[in-house]
Specification:
CATH topology of the largest domain in chain B: Cytochrome Bc1 Complex, Chain C
Distance between the termini of chain B: 55 Å
Number of helices of chain B: 12
Largest interface: A-B, 86 and 102 residues
Largest sheet of chain B: none
CATH architecture of the largest domain in chain B: Up-down Bundle
CATH superfamily of the largest domain in chain B: Cytochrome Bc1 Complex, Chain C
Number of helices of chain A: 9
Order of helices and strands of chain B: HHHEHHHHHHHHH
Strand content of chain B: under 5%
Structural class of chain A: mainly alpha
Oligomer: heterodimer
Low-confidence stretches of chain A: 1-21
Mean pLDDT of chain A: 90
Radius of gyration of chain B: 24 Å
Number of strands of chain A: 1
Number of strands of chain B: 1
Shape of chain A: flat
Number of domains of chain B: 2
CATH class of the largest domain in chain B: Mainly Alpha
Strand content of chain A: under 5%
């Protein structure tokens, strides 16, 4: 079971019979069933008490003519609603969730590290775990917390101890990045924006290539293969791009990097 | 007296009827321990023996099990709610009020349904985090991770479609905000990039498909109700069956022996 990495040994692992040397199996009844029963019991008790103490919300009847401010999506989608501040809806609402779902699905296929299969370890899979925590905790959970607790009327930033002022108007000082660096011509600005974005992905991919080769060696890169490498670097760079766009907005008030008649990024 | 009772007990337990239902005794023998699991349609989701670490809460967090439990709670409480709820714009909100104030245990059932749904979302995320941390998606379990991601998406869709049904301000505006994204889909949304290529318009695009019309309304309520109560639960059950079956075939993950 030690060398689970290659496809050739995989079949042997699944067909391995119980009772071999070093087998540490115990009876499911009562060992596992007892744990599951207790878990069920405590979860149901907790849910019951919670449901007795906290009522599900019910507001006034639906009125399509009266939009509340703020209108928030269900809490589990507030991370996506939060990145609407930084990206247009086609990206924040459609492309980003698609990348998230696809990115999660390909994890087992781009991670070829045979170690850490079936036990907790940080040392043996540092980069995998850090990437996951970056995506799940930093990007997904923290934006949900921001969207839930600190976004008020007009999707403005209100600390929990501040009163929601529905009349607060924040001056819109956002400008596009090409404008900020002094480009006034429309097509030059578009070319500049496009080359920045393409450049980010090209330089980012190259940097990641050299970094992985430096870290793991050429032999690893060959085993990893082009498809896995490009998928991984593309998804990672997309995650980093979200942070970059957030910083550009919060620090420099940048709205778009690329402006065209068809699509803005 | 006690010997008469023992005799009666013996006669009942040795009767043809009893033995046709219960096929093994209760003595704590290895044979009975295995039969308890393999002879029970629910418990035989498990193998009859598992590796020791897989029974430990600190390994599994029991989060997959809690997700499934939350699903079952929403199914049971959801059936109760369906008795009193009509997915019609004129009635839906009043039915929720009626359910809350006039039905025995109505408020409790609605509360449990809602909090279990939220609990399911949290539990499925924690389950995914745990499976990642133990590397349990690694070969031979890659495909089951993919099925798990699909189940995660289905969990969110179940919760999202249910969000609309109370037909209050919270419901329609949260669902509007979420569904408005459909309008921005590249090519398929009327406000999305390249909308003109396929010629989509506000009453014939990705969001209209979701809403069942150009705007959120009574048609959306019926559509979300059917998705919430019939279609998505059916699909979820199918993928759950695959998910559990694959765990069973591939075995629980664990450190090398």
């Amino acid at each position: 079971m030690a060398e689970m990495g290659s496809a050739a040994t995989r079949v042997e692992v699944t067909l391995k019979k119980a009772g071999g040397p070093g087998d540490d199996k115990v009876h499911t009844w009562p060992n596992l069933v007892r744990a599951e029963f207790l878990c069920t019991l405590f979860t149901i008790i907790f849910l019951l008490l919670w449901s007795l103490l906290v009522d599900a919300p019910l507001e006034e009847p639906a009125d399509p003519g009266r939009t509340p401010n703020p209108s928030k999506a269900p809490w589990y989608f507030l991370g996506l609603q939060e990145i609407l501040v930084f990206f247009d809806p086609w990206h924040a609402g459609v492309v980003a969730p698609t990348f998230i779902i696809m990115g999660l699905m390909v994890i087992p296929f781009i991670d070829i590290n045979p170690k850490g299969n079936g036990y907790y370890t940080f040392k043996e899979r540092k980069y995998e775990i850090l990437t996951f925590i970056f995506g799940f905790h930093v990007l997904w959970i923290s934006t949900i917390v921001i969207g839930t607790f600190v976004r008020g009327p007009g999707w403005n930033w209100f600390w929990p101890w501040e009163v929601w002022d529905a009349h607060l108007v924040e001056a819109l000082t956002n400008q596009d990045l090409p404008y900020l660096v002094g480009i006034r011509d429309y097509w030059t600005a578009a070319a500049f924006g496009l080359s920045l974005i393409l450049g980010f992905f090209v330089v980012g991919t190259a940097a990641m290539y050299w970094w992985v080769v430096w870290l793991k060696g050429r032999e690893f890169m060959q085993r990893w293969g082009a498809a896995r490498f490009f998928l991984t670097s593309f998804l990672t760079l997309n995650m980093i791009a979200v942070v970059i766009k957030m910083l550009l907005r919060h620090i420099l008030n940048v709205k778009y990097i690329l402006v065209t008649p068809w699509i803005n990024v | 007296m006690s010997s008469q009772f023992d005799e009666l007990k013996r006669q009942v337990m040795e009767s043809q009827a009893w033995q046709s239902i219960f096929r093994h005794g209760y003595e704590d023998t290895p044979r009975n321990r295995i039969l308890m699991v393999s002879g029970n349609v629910w418990l035989h989701l498990h193998p009859s023996k598992v590796r020791k670490h897989a029974t430990r809460l600190r390994f599994t967090w029991c989060m997959g099990g809690i997700t499934f439990l939350m699903y079952l709670v929403t199914v049971v409480t959801g059936v109760y709610l369906m008795f009193y709820y009509r997915p019609v714009a004129e009635y839906a909100y009043a039915d929720i009020k009626y359910l809350e104030f006039d039905m025995p245990f109505g408020m409790l059932m609605r509360n449990m349904h809602r909090w279990a749904a939220h609990g399911m979302v949290i539990a499925v995320w924690l389950h995914m985090f745990r499976v990642f941390m133990t590397g349990s998606y690694k070969p031979p379990r890659e495909f089951n991770w993919v099925v798990g991601v699909l189940l995660l998406v289905l969990t969110l869709l179940l919760s999202f479609t249910g969000y609309l049904l109370p037909w209050d301000q919270l419901a329609i505006w949260a669902v509007s905000v979420g569904s408005n994204m459909g309008r921005a889909t590249p090519l398929l949304g009327n406000e999305g990039p390249f909308a003109e290529v396929l010629g989509v318009n506000p009453i014939y695009d990705a969001r209209a498909f979701l809403f069942g019309g150009g705007e959120i309304g009574a048609h959306t309520l019926l559509r979300f109700y059917i998705l919430h109560c019939i279609f998505i639960p059916l699909v979820t059950s199918l993928f759950l069956a695959v998910h559990f079956w694959r765990i069973r075939r591939d075995g629980f993950s664990g450190p090398a022996l």
